[in-house]
Amino acid sequence: MENKEFIVLAFVNNQISVLNRITSAYLKRHINIESLNVSESYIKGISTVVISAIISEETVERIVNQLNNNIDILNVNYFLQDELIYKEMALYKISPDFIKDSLFFNHFLNRLNGKIIEISNEYIIAEKSGSKAELDALKQSLERKNLLISYARSGNVVLQREPVESLLRKVS
Amino acid sequence: MENSKITGAEAMLISLQKEGVDTIFGYPGGTIMPLYDKLFDYQQQIRHILVRHEQGAVHAAQGYSRATGKPGVCFATAGPGATNLVTGIADAMMDSTPLVCITAQVGYDKLGSNFFQEADTISITIPLTKWSYQITSASEITTIMSKAFYIARSGRPGPVLISFTKNAQTELTRFSYTPYKPQQIKGKMLPEIPSVSISEAVNMINNSLMPLIISGQGVLISGASDKCMELSQKGNIPIITTLLGISSVPTNYILHGGFAGMHGSLTANHMIQKSDLLIAIGMRFSDRFTGEIPGFAPNAKIIHIDIDKAEFDKCVKCDLKLHGDALQTIKLIMPGIKYRKREEWIRYMNQVKIEDRNMIESMYLKEKKSGSISMAKVVESVAEWCCNDSIIVTDVGQNQMFAARFSKFSNPRNFITSGGLGTMGFGLPAAIGAICGKKEKDVIIFTGDGGFQMSIHELGTIMKYNLPVKIVVLNNSFLGMVRQWQELFFEKRYSFTEMDNPDFSKIAQAYGILSYKIMNFNDLESKIKEMISHKGPILLEIDVTKEENIFPMVPAGKSLDELITQ
Ligand SMILES: Cc1ncc(C[n+]2csc(CCOP(=O)(O)OP(=O)(O)O)c2C)c(N)n1
User: Fold this and answer.
1) How many CB pairs under 8 A join A and B?
2) Which structural domains are found in chain B, ordered by start?
3) Edge-to-edge strand ranges of the sheet holding A3-13
4) CATH match for A86-153 among 3.30.70.1150, 3.20.20.20, 3.90.70.10, 3.40.190.10
5) Ligand 1 centroid to B447 CA: how many Å?
6) What distance lies between CA B399 and its chain's CA centroid?
């Protein structure tokens, strides 16, 4: 079976050790986690965990089945990227020369929906959200122009297209 | 006001009583001392068995649970005490045994400082437990303990670990106990099985010419042995078991074909390969059961009944999955089942049974020219003379497979063995646990010379409590099962499998346990009879054939068709 980036989305009790139980299901199968994000969900006391890894559908199915048996995991499913509303955020530390390249700079602000959040003599900090590919593309352009000083990216933030009520039913 | 408060240690002991705990297997130490101090006052209400090693405590708790169906409970101190439990917890997770393991932990304010005997027990046991929790305040005890027992018992049972910090043992708290009620739908109330699936199952069974029920441990756990038999009788459907499903069906039932798998019977393995419909109940198609999957049950459709959804299609793809408790699901199917003659199929079964028996007779049961004793002969003699409601416990290796093949059962939960993990050293402490749970039954354990020495210290526990365990050490002076593989697959290169052994019967005598060493075929029967009638603990050390193999065998990586018989 072909390996693809599968995103596992779990609603869990906001409790010590739940995250370790989840990651241990990956560790057990010798799988590297590409991205992981834990945050409070829209339901009090329940957190959302988003994990992506490049694996086969068979493996992700087994992981989800194992997680499903977990006492503190209330609901868990797996998706491909385009089945979800899926964003990441990145911060770019860029050389001040960025502003001098007005064509590129305008493109960044107007077409890429980037934001400048801090400017100093030594650097500019820019922020952009988007898909992994979009964030990577910007990073590569900056690198090609020798402008990138440093770079950091968040984990995945995802939302299901499913209506909230049916989600609520699943976890309550 | 203050008077109505009790310590966390006492709250723990009362919680255990509320959950019906009558026996605890454990071993004290610095961090768990407040709990043991309270236990001193509760000796009349709760029986504590002091083992000789914490691994013995957890295996005993497993044996207790497997014999009684109740969760087994063990205590261990922090650090080394807790880490000594790990093997048994892993074993219980594999074999779905409900346990509540309570290990002490350093005080809350000391956590993470590498305090004396601090080990991160929660992290160590995460992949091995169904659930775990660290109690850091006495006020949490009652809620957590009722949840712990609920989780250990419910659905597919499993081990729960509770890490109990020292401060929580000594703090004062007010006691009030309410049984845990699951709030989430998850894993608790099972979804109903759609009636179309039930009628599909009924049709598949009724239309099948060669159906075969496979009864797994799930049948024992859900108490479905009788219903499973009824299904077999009502539809005239032969039945086989998995290794852990042994004793779910009486051995002498005419439609019973034995257990299947790597060292299963010829009958059961052949029937799987011939069958056109497997009705797999409460089992997980482990690799030791199926052999190489592509060649498994080539002609059969498969109905899989299990309480754990994660087992569906995990190893073997099934045609119909019924997600539910074994007992409830069989009850739903039963009304539609029609009796069918299936003459050809029954004839086939009886014919392989004869073939099977002939092979056994000539290979194992005849007295050998050399006068040496076959393990099979020992187990068969014990089966002949012991009460048919005895509990048979095994260790791991050839002794286990001979015990599984040749013991006879008439009641459920009478066979206790380490299946999924195959833990040597499991047997003796598990037998201790079984006898503590079922005092009215005879408990007989078969063990090899290797595995026996992995828990030989538990003879001390047997001595202390005068537990009437009947120990049969099948001594071949080899790590027999490994030697068998070396003989068959490694050109007889016996790399580190020969054992120089002490005189086991003398060791038993040193513990004050009656014992005999049997080296002669002619002494076997009389000593076995004596063992059966003896009231206290007794050990028979039997010098068995040094290089005997257990056949048939499905070599690793081969299908059930490729089983070898010599
Ligand atoms: C703790 C542990 N270590 C190693 C093994 C591997 N192993 C499986 S069977 C076996 C040989 C057992 O020898 P013995 O206890 O003498 O029993 P026999 O096979 O001779 O009946 C070994 C070493 C195991 N199952 N468990």
Assistant:
1) 42
2) 5-182 (3.40.50.970), 195-349 (3.40.50.1220), 366-556 (3.40.50.970)
3) A35-40, A46-56, A3-13, A73-80
4) 3.30.70.1150
5) 10
6) 15
What CA–CA distance (Å, rounded) separates B487 from B484? 5
Contact A74 B122 (CB under 8 A): no
A65, A72, A73 ranked by CB distance to B310: nearest:
A65
Length of chain A: 172
pLDDT tens string A119-142? 999 999 999 999 888 999 999 999
Sign (positive/negative) of CA torsion B374, B380, B381, B383?
A: positive
- Which regions of chain A carry the CATH code 3.30.70.260? 3-84+162-171
Confidence of residue A159 (pLDDT cuts 50, 70, 90): confident
Give the pLDDT score at B509: 97
pLDDT tens sequence across B375-412: 999 999 999 999 999 999 999 999 999 999 999 999 99
pLDDT, tens digit (0-9, with 9 covering 90-100), for B78-137? 999 999 999 999 999 999 999 999 999 999 999 999 999 999 999 999 999 999 999 999
How many C-beta neighbours within 10 Å does residue A46 have? 18
Q: pTM of the prediction?
A: 0.94
Residues from chain B that touch A21, judged by Cβ atoms under 8 A, are: 126
Whether the pLDDT of residue B516 is over 80: the answer is yes
Cα B455 to ligand 1 centroid, rounded to whole Å: 13
pLDDT of residue A167: 57
Residues of chain A with CATH 3.30.70.1150: 86-153
d(CA A26, CA B44): 47
Which three-class secondary structure state does DSSP give residue A139? helix
Domain A3-84+162-171 carries which CATH code?
A: 3.30.70.260
